[in-house]
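Researcher: I'd like a candidate sequence for this fold, 82 residues long. If you have to choose between options at a position, lean toward the conservative one.
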């Protein structure tokens, strides 16, 4: 019986701390639950931006490697310029 009274007095002294910690954990959990999708969306946009940047870098590389020499027409009649 004395052990039960000690436990009861401990809960009586620390009830505010237990309630405060429980509410804090619930608030922290709620904040994390709401922030995870936001961070995933930002990550998705960032990955998309990096992918588009890589595509443009590859296009620039291919444009620089392309041979831009103009072919000469074989006869004067093949020239379509005005």
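Model: Candidate sequence:
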């Amino acid at each position: 019986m004395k052990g039960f009274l000690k436990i009861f007095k401990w809960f009586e002294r620390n009830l505010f701390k237990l309630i405060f910690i429980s509410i804090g954990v619930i608030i922290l959990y709620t904040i994390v639950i709401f922030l995870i999708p936001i961070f995933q969306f930002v990550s998705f946009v960032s990955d998309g931006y990096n992918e588009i940047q890589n595509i443009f870098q590859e296009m620039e590389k291919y444009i620089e490697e392309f041979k831009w020499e103009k072919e000469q027409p074989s006869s004067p009649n093949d020239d379509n310029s005005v």
